[in-house]
Design a protein that fits this description.
The structure is a homodimer of 433-residue chains. In chain A, 39% of the residues lie in helices and 20% in strands. Chain A has 433 residues and is α+β, with helices and mostly antiparallel strands. Chain A is elongated, with a radius of gyration of 27 Å. At the A-B interface, helix 1, strand 1, strand 2, helix 4 and strand 5 of A face helix 1, strand 1, strand 2, helix 4 and strand 5 of B.
């Protein structure tokens, strides 16, 4: 007796069956189409890199999660765990070949050996876009606008993009006399939505006295119109500054572009990472804010600091594609398609397959996707197969003359047949789109 | 002084700068569009799998090339080295969830630690398509037709698809009394194009006597019309058979579908691997046959044999995307685009960025991709930047009223300006496509 190998995937990894893969691709294509319309350019980098490149000078949490090994040539290599670090390496390495401001997007898989119990996957798709080489409010705004457009293209419904400026938070901490505690404060503040005001107060209490903890909570709690919130932030941080001016200008752009309703100024958004220096932002679906941010990012001073002495500033964001898909799916906003081909051409006689395929090519040349049946089973069985495959129509070719004779088109929903010549069928099917 | 990490990629790995990535994506999208029009469905599988799944019962050459390591959970894992083995595992695992005949495509990266000296890469994109669950000439023909259409969509020019049937070769070997030497003979015969007749004769001489070696060379050398070649093969292999009948039927389909000129029957095509049992094929570019086959495959009896006791037959092919791109590029058949955005909107005043982006959204809504300049540099500098980025036109917004005033459109090729209102500019730009 033969031993079989149990077919299975690794924990935290997934197969995508056609229906799920079509959904994923539809979203990726919609997002990508927006990026292209904004003039952003695609790049690609290797899945595997030198560990030194990816982890730099030690990566803390990240280091434990990375898929790292020694290759057959004795090199210490790792699978990328995000698209930001490879982009930093890419920008440093190819600086002379790029035209700045350089606007790029990158949609690709990344790998992290995360705890899968929280419903996290170890292989997932990231979708990053950045504009580097220009520290202007115009670039900040463009990234924000592109996020809004990309999410709209995904059918995510209303979104609320929460914006803040890390520099204003720094100014505020300086004003209250604790600029050096930034990382600890950020870590506490970042959890406001998850753990609530009281817990954040307790966490802040471990870093500073209760008067300052209260001040910090007041600062991050100011939520009103953009203008009022900004005024409160300006007062609390010691007056207008370059940073507050940036937030004013971005607001003006939003209003001029008629998109101000999608954005709020929220001083509690900090994005935890030390990396960001300018605006930071997170995006929430109005109908499902509890799943957290589906697109986040910010402005950084120096992307390429690890690899080059020439600093490179930029602003960028990352769409959490898997989370977004899960949310859109849960909201019932997706139409799960089983196939790209609405038309199924039945096979009446296998010997006529060449003619059926010629008929199909005529439809395909008119941009109508169609599958040709490969077996001359009973027509009712073929109707069932077509339905199972997700087709909407079955073409029953003419028995005498498949190419020039009258064709029967069966609507699988209404179960009605209509007879027509090919050219008028093509017109009918094209008009359905 | 700070130490920098030298930015570099691993040997055999590549970055794709925008121009190359756009070219790759254009080809992938063209190929994918053909697959979708034929009703083939996309799937995806993990990059990383259990080594046992990928290597089965020992993989010979493959085993040495695979990126294999122990993950943090102590599992023996490997990066996939092709898309066929993961598909076999996928089909066995999800058999109950698929609708047969199941037609799938999969375009994804694979990794092999190959010798890079032969210009091979260690990370490359494969593009596989298969129809499983129906052993019919109709499926064989569909895969052949789809190959032809996919290559045409890539702009590969004239192709010649060489077809053979492994079963007929087996019949022939049986007839001359050496059925058991199949693998050795296949290995020798497979090299005919590379090493020539004499070397193949010498290699065959190590397996059999010179009379049989001569017979084998005659068998594989028969090259004339499909019909004459088939007749010679039938005679040499002991008369008509199921296998010769399959080749006749496929030929009839080709003629009925008006595509017979793209195909030749070539008994020297064997595809080395024991795996194939039915038709086998390779595809050559008429203008650059020396680069070898750009799309190959065949019919197999049992895809899922390693993982399941239920056999699953099918027919499939794989496009060597990187080789194809290199060839099309070398033939000068590619138009290297630097950007997806033909239009660049100049910035006259950074304070008006919101209005420029609103203008841009109007163009984008009419499917005209456009990049908005983020810095109000001198116009001549912006023209140069737009040109460097690959734009064809620059829009110079109206200084008074960017949205409703007359706009100047500069053609970067002719260096001519034209003035018009937005709606007529949109009409003009749409008509250019």
């Amino acid at each position: 007796m033969q031993d079989f190998i149990q077919p299975r995937v690794l924990k935290g990894f997934r197969d995508f069956l056609p229906q799920d893969e079509i959904l994923k691709r539809t979203l990726v294509e919609n997002v990508e189409n927006v990026f292209r319309k904004f003039g952003f350019l695609p790049i690609d980098t290797p899945a595997l890199e030198y560990t030194e490149i990816l982890l730099g000078k030690g990566g803390g949490e990240t280091e434990k999660q990375v898929y790292r090994f020694t290759d057959n040539g004795g090199r210490d290599v790792s699978l990328r765990f995000d698209l930001t670090v490879p982009f930093a390496r890419f920008a440093a390495e190819h600086r002379g070949e790029l035209t700045f401001p350089f606007k790029r997007y990158h949609i690709a898989k990344v790998w992290r050996g995360e705890n899968t119990q929280r419903g996290r996957y170890r292989e997932f798709t990231q979708c990053d876009f950045d504009c580097v080489g220009s520290n202007t409010a115009a670039c900040d705004f463009e990234i924000l606008l592109m996020m809004k457009e990309a999410l709209a293209a995904c059918g995510a419904g209303n979104v609320k993009i929460k914006v803040n400026h890390r520099g204003m938070f720094n100014n505020f901490l300086k004003k209250i006399g604790m600029p050096e505690k930034l990382t600890g404060v950020l870590r506490a503040v970042d959890k406001l939505d998850k753990i609530g005001r009281e817990e954040v107060f307790r966490a802040l209490g471990e870093i500073t006295d209760s008067a300052r903890a209260e001040e910090i909570l007041n600062f991050i709690g100011a939520k009103s119109t953009w203008e009022e919130t900004l005024d409160a932030m300006i007062k609390a941080s010691g007056g207008t500054s370059e940073e507050s001016e940036r937030l004013s200008v971005i607001r003006k752009y939003m209003i001029d572009c008629n998109v101000e309703d999608s954005f709020v100024l929220d001083p509690s958004i900090t994005r935890g990472l030390d990396y960001y220096t300018g605006i930071v932002f997170e995006t929430f679906l109005a109908e499902m804010s509890e799943i957290g941010s589906v697109c986040s990012g910010g402005r950084y001073d120096n992307l390429t600091g690890l690899y080059s002495k020439e600093p490179l500033s930029g602003v960028g964001a990352s769409v959490g594609l898997d989370r977004l898909i899960a949310a859109i799916d849960a909201l019932g906003k997706t139409q799960k398609r089983k196939t790209y081909a609405p038309v199924f051409i039945a096979c009446l006689d296998e010997a006529k397959t060449g003619l059926y395929q010629q008929l199909a090519l005529k439809l395909r040349n008119s941009n109508i996707a169609c599958e040709v049946s490969c077996e001359a089973k009973k027509l009712t069985a073929q109707f069932m197969l077509a339905e199972k495959k997700g087709a909407s129509y079955v073409i029953i070719p003419n028995e005498e003359d498949p190419l020039n004779g009258k064709i029967t088109l069966r609507d699988l929903t209404s179960r009605q047949n209509r007879e027509a010549y090919l050219s008028s069928l093509i017109d009918f099917l094209k008009a359905l789109k």
